[in-house]
Amino acid sequence: MEPLLACLVGLLFAAALYLMLSGVLIKFVFGLALIGNGINLLIFAAGRLELQQPPLIHPGSEILSHPVANALPQAMILTAIVIGFAMVTFLLVLLYRTYAYTGTLDADEAPFQEEWREDDSCPEPLIRTQQDIKRLRRESEL
Amino acid sequence: MVHTDHDLLTRRCRLMGRLSSLLPALLFILTCRFWPAIVDGQTYLFDAPWLPSLDLSLRFRLDGLSLLFALIITGAGTFVSLYSSSYLGGHRHCGRYFFFLHAFMLSMLGLVLADNLLLLFVFWEGTTIFSFLLIGFDHESKTARENARQSLLVTGGGGLALLLGILLLKIAGGSYIISSWPAAGEMVRQHHLYPFILLAVLLGAMTKSAQFPFHFWLPNAMSAPTPISAFLHAATMVKAGIYLLMRCHPLLGGTPAWTTALVLIGGFTAVWGAVQALGPRDLKRILAYTTIMALGILTMFLGGQTAPALTAAVTFLMVHALYKAALFLAVGSIDHSAGSRIIDSLGGLWRAMPLTAVAVGAACLSMAGFPLFFGFIGKEIMYEGALAKEMYPVFAVTAAVLANALMTAVAAIVLFGPFFGSARAPRQQIHESPWTMWLGPLVLGGVGILFGLIPEWVSRVLIEPAVRSFHPGPEEIRLVFFHGLNLPLLLSLVTLCCGATLYLLRHRACRLVATVVEKLPATFEGLYNLGLSGFMNGAGLLTGRLQNGSLHFYLAVIVSTVILGVGWPWIGKLSGIFGRWPESIDTTALALLLFVSGSVFVVVTARKRLAAIGGLGGVGAGVALIFLLFGAPDIAMTQLLVETLTVIFVSLVMLRLPAIEQARRRTVRRRCLDGGLALAGGLLLTSLLIGVGSEPLDRSLTSYFEANSYLAAHGRNIVNVILVDFRSFDTLGEIIVVVLAAWAAVTLIRKPMEP
């Protein structure tokens, strides 16, 4: 079964890369979501798929009495799913805010082009002292 | 209000300086305690392992040469700390200053005491770094920063060369233990790596000690505070290279290559430095060039083999440390009191600053080599050494006489310029500096006179032990007050006469030097600047090319790097993995795979938001079902929940974003490129995964969890037990990530950003 799943993982990766390379930020997030799924499947398949019994110890017995699916990749994937979800959600909000700020989601457009500063002067930091923090807070409340 | 703050700062700075000058003072006294035994020919050794596998040990050894350097370092350090306490006034970064100063002093002490070459290198780099920090102490000035960088690059580059030399020395069979060198010298000198070792060590020593063509950093280092110039760039740090040459003398010295390189480079540096000293009008720069001259003389004499030449080097080292530190400190006082150190705007200061004038007088007469002063003794032995046969006597004598004559003229300029002649400012405005500032120059100048009167004693207790520690031999080492009427005395007279003539012609000489320096077609400093700007421009160009702001470009570079880096070695092993298809295919699984593939296709090709969201949800749900099918109900459940939430969030956000069909479409060419990259990436992963599947699986961790899940952790669901028990800290980290992401998202949503 693994070779077939490997093909699916390859498909997910290829689709994800194609979307991420598009330069449209919303597609980038789609690609990220797909790549997350692909990686989870990759870990899953790397732990072998022959056994279809979930890794549970039956009530009454203290040790496994029958062969079960590999528990270790499952634990890893569980963590990975949640973290991937957190990242996609954060990126979505960032995207929303970015669009509100720049008015575009095309990464090749002007607002996303970093400027190459010739002089090596640093911009003034906004926050230097406690007073600055208070001032910024006041301004944001207004 | 501001005034009080400043007063407070001044007081604190003064206290800090005076207290911290106790450190070098105590170290000086401690060193003095070892002195009598060293004179009797004993040495002290401290040895503790540090990194035995690298032959690096904390091995310190005190012998005659180390003692001499330690006395100079701690003695000058005491006066410089004391002096700085007043010189800095209420500087904001007073604490930083004293920290750097004393850290430098300890590095320098470590350097001259280390008996392990690697340990010496560690301290060597320490002095480079603290010198850099001290030159750039006034870090708000661009010049200071640039000069600090210059000295760091030049001496740091030399340090790297030195490290190379150290490693080559080890390969050539030499030992890191410096005190074992006299015995191993012959073997290393015969080794075929000897020329490279010599070159590397000389590069290290000559960048540090500002020898031509690396001399240019030293005058620029004068942007350091004046006491720092006195301490680092006159008395101690620039002598580190000289110290290294002295230590290496029994190991690497004595060959024609050594003698030729040192005598020629040193002699040329001495004369060229002394000539350039006539040019500038800034007292500090004048002194910097005379320091280059002194370092050149020292290098030249270390090229010699005989006792007189080496004695001359050690004696002149002391002479120079005494008068140069005094002069620098005095120039700082002048700058402090009269507000300028440009020689043309100073004059008649001896009435206002009598004590400083006396100190400068003593130092300058020693520098000019007048009889009765220690400088005279140094000059006599210098000529005696230069007349030795093995080191090109004609060249050496000419260089020494020329450099000393120029030195005499410069000494006169430094003495007469600011202190005599007509006063340039009303007298009441200028006053003598506080005692902390005149004490150092006065004592150092006074010692110069004292040593000149008792040269026999000095040579017995200081010079001889120092010379013997790197030139053991039966020859007599003795300084005498008066040598009698001989050739060196004649040369001294010639020197004084030439010096006086040069002083009288100083205005013409100054113009001449300025013209010559200006007319030079290329200087090594220019070369350095060219190299540096070329490097910067190249780096800028490269960065501009690589960091061009295009997300597509970045991703394409990353993806193709991974594909090439992983795929290239993998391609040879591909043949074995295909052709291992499963005998039976589960129809449910196949249907699921097809479903997910279809959903992926929908996401990629979607031109409507709804289709994209639907496809995304389809992929998530399909993957969840695959998990369920292969015995992972926990992940399947989580995946379903998460995918549902993701679809909801994506829908919410996409409602506020422009429709996908409005987005610019890729050109066909770029689509082919992206498609190719994506396909290659996908194929690579598929083949990798198949390859992984054909390798045997290590289930030992899983078996451990399976065996201990119930017995040790009392849980029947092994996946859950791993998450909340065996690897619970990982889960805690995961929760923190989720909380942080949620926090950041909430912040972004809540606070509208000002455009």
Automatic annotation (TrEMBL), chain A:
InterPro entries: CPA3_antiporter_subunitC (IPR050601), NUOK/Mnh_C1-like (IPR039428)
Residues annotated as transmembrane: 75-96
Membrane topology: Multi-pass membrane protein
Localization annotation: Cell membrane
Gene Ontology terms: cellular component: plasma membrane
Pfam families given in the database record: Oxidored_q2
Main location: membrane
Record keywords: Cell membrane, Membrane, Transmembrane, Transmembrane helix
Top-rank taxon, per record: Bacteria
UniProt family annotation: Belongs to the CPA3 antiporters (TC 2.A.63) subunit C family.
Protein name (database record): Multicomponent Na+:H+ antiporter subunit C
TrEMBL record, chain B:
Record's GO cellular component terms: plasma membrane
Stretches assigned to the NADH-Ubiquinone oxidoreductase (complex I) chain 5 N-terminal domain: 53-98
Gene Ontology molecular function, alphabetical: antiporter activity
UniProt xrefs under InterPro entries: CPA3_Na-H_Antiporter_A, MrpA_C/MbhD, MrpA_C/MbhE, ND/Mrp_TM, Nuo/plastoQ_OxRdtase_6_NuoJ, Proton_antipo_N
Principal location class: membrane
GO BP: any one term: monoatomic ion transport
Keywords: Antiport, Cell membrane, Ion transport, Membrane, Transmembrane, Transmembrane helix, Transport
UniProt domain MrpA C-terminal/MbhE: residue ranges: 670-751
Start and end residues of each NADH:quinone oxidoreductase/Mrp antiporter transmembrane domain: 114-399
Pfam families: MbhD, MbhE, Proton_antipo_M, Proton_antipo_N
Annotated TM spans: 65-85, 97-114, 120-139, 151-173, 193-218, 230-246, 258-279, 286-303, 309-331, 352-374, 394-417, 438-459, 479-505, 551-572, 584-603, 610-630, 636-655, 676-694, 731-749
Location of the protein in the cell: Cell membrane; Membrane
Origin superkingdom: Bacteria
Membrane topology: Multi-pass membrane protein
Domain MrpA C-terminal/MbhD: 595-658
Name of the protein: Multisubunit sodium/proton antiporter, MrpA subunit
UniProt source species: Desulfofustis glycolicus DSM 9705
